[in-house]
């Protein structure tokens, strides 16, 4: 299994960098459209797990400096 990172579609305005886990959760929820299950703090980003309406759980990273939301993609 190969894990790569892809940048999700950005809005017209870039998101400000998150100042807390709650802000990171909100940014991830807006990009992925689902319910936040968990937020973990990493050195450079917040890892947010989101449950989509389809039942799929998606992990995204929210960069602490740029506010950029990236999604983990699994290529099998």
Automatic annotation (TrEMBL):
Residues 1-29 are annotated as: Disordered. It comes from the Bacteria. Pfam families: PepSY_2 (PF13670). InterPro entries: PepSY. Residues 2-73 form the PepSY domain. Residues 20-29 have a biased composition (Low complexity). This is Peptidase. It comes from Paraglaciecola hydrolytica.
